[in-house]
Recover the amino acids of this structure.
């Protein structure tokens, strides 16, 4: 007789960030997803940092409750294995979120993205952030993005949007790329259903949440400037 086992899904609490940036800072505990790995109760190298991020008691010692909280975070953002271990990739993801939140409403405080070109879409690979500005005035964002992984990095430098396709289909990766706006070879802004913090990253495109990709589509046109700078953590 076929046996069916049901399990209660986890609940993840998310604290909203600034100007359309959503950065999870706490995770409500629940039963781990059925597909998750067994909980690893070994203390990880970033135990204290991860505990603080998740709002846990910061004692630097892994507990089963710590493990389940970490596991829930990993499962939400596609970090594998989702075993609840406070390792490098998990902390790198959390640290990126902290940097994104710290950007607030002034992501170009250091003026690394040009302010003398009028309307321009900026992409900061280091913080995995993008925004649209007009001169020095912020017009949209900052919003989290998911850029190229190691080996297929999003190329840096000054670009221009040269092709737009609202319902693009990638013949290379065989996936849908809604709201595609190409700015460098096959690299484009486009929406994805994956978490913006899902490692290791894209094939080179700047992945965005659907609402953000749609906003970029409505605000940008062919010939508009794009500036990509920094270096994605882990590349």
């Amino acid at each position: 007789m076929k046996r069916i086992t049901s399990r209660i899904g986890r609940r993840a609490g998310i604290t909203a960030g600034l100007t359309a940036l959503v950065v999870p800072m706490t995770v409500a505990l629940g039963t781990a997803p059925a597909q998750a790995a067994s909980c690893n109760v070994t203390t990880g190298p970033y135990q204290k940092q991860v505990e603080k991020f998740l709002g846990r008691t910061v004692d630097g010692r892994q507990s089963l409750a710590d493990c389940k909280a970490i596991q829930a975070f990993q499962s939400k953002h596609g970090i594998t294995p989702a075993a609840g271990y406070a390792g490098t990739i998990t902390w790198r993801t959390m640290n990126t979120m902290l940097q994104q939140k710290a950007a607030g409403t002034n992501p170009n405080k250091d003026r690394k993205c040009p302010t003398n070109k009028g309307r321009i879409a900026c992409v900061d690979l280091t913080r995995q952030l993008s925004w649209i500005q007009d001169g020095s005035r912020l017009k949209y964002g900052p919003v989290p993005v998911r850029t190229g992984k190691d080996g297929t990095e999003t190329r840096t430098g000054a670009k221009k949007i040269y092709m737009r396709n609202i319902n693009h289909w990638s013949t290379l990766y065989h996936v849908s790329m809604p709201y595609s706006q190409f700015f460098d070879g096959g690299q484009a802004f486009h929406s994805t259903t994956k978490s913006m913090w899902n490692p290791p990253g894209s094939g080179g495109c700047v992945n965005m949440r659907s609402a953000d990709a749609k906003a970029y589509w409505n605000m940008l046109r062919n010939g508009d400037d794009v500036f990509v700078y920094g270096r994605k953590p882990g590349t």
